[in-house]
Design brief:
Helix content is about 10%, strand content about 30%. The chain has about 210 residues and is mainly beta. The chain has one domain. Strand 4 and strand 5 form a beta hairpin. The relative contact order is 0.19.
Length: about 210
């Protein structure tokens, strides 16, 4: 991943799903007992200039970023569902990529983790096989200064393709075995605090 930054940034653009296609996808997911997170939070906050979604949390068992907006907590490679800890991250979606933001990050309907969907191979999912994408296409800042209500050290795992927190001594639990392996961009995620407007989700390019 570290040697393919420009390839991934340039080759995988954000794509839009037609209303009919989206509703069809939602019906299929609903029949399976899973609703894409975009169906829960479908409006942009008036505080931000871009559409956002919150309820993204770190799992204190596997260190992956997962969507915590459902009663069920997906599938954790450490066993059972994910267990939320720490900040509530607020992520921008369905906007243009820049040289300091990367798209193709998606919600997996099987494990509920955030994974990179920009490769034909879909990593390793603790729910079995590769990840299955649904909902929004997240476009996330990377390799920018960490300040204010922002949190760095979020990385792509080159074994399972999920996003995990690489800022602690351990590397969590990877569904492909052992701990996660960091590669590529250092992603910087915005989290909710007392002041909602003091950090831009998508910083201007310098």
């Amino acid at each position: 991943m570290s040697n393919r930054r420009s390839e991934r940034t340039d080759s995988f653009s954000c794509h839009e799903v037609s209303r009919r296609g989206f509703l069809s996808m939602a019906m299929r997911l609903g029949a399976a007992g899973v609703v894409a997170p975009s169906l829960l939070v479908a409006t942009a906050s008036p505080v931000f200039a871009v559409p956002i979604q919150d309820n993204w949390r770190r799992c204190n068992k596997c260190s992956a970023l997962f969507f915590n907006g459902y009663p069920k907590k997906g599938r954790c490679p450490a066993g059972g569902g994910h267990a939320a800890t720490g900040d509530n991250f607020v992520l921008p979606h369905d906007i243009a990529q820049t040289r300091t933001s990367q798209g193709a990050w998606r919600f997996c309907t099987k494990c509920y983790a955030m994974f990179f969907d920009g490769y034909p191979q879909k990593g390793a999912c603790p729910g079995g096989g590769g990840h299955t994408a649904a909902g929004y296409v997240f476009v996330l800042p990377h390799d920018i200064p960490v300040r204010g209500l922002a949190h760095g050290n979020w990385r792509f795992c080159n074994k399972c393709h999920t996003m995990f927190f690489d800022g602690s001594g351990t590397k969590g639990r990877c569904p492909a075995g052992n701990g996660h392996e960091a590669q590529g961009f250092n992603l910087v995620l915005r989290f909710r605090g007392n002041q909602e407007g003091d950090v831009n989700l998508v910083p201007a390019e310098g």
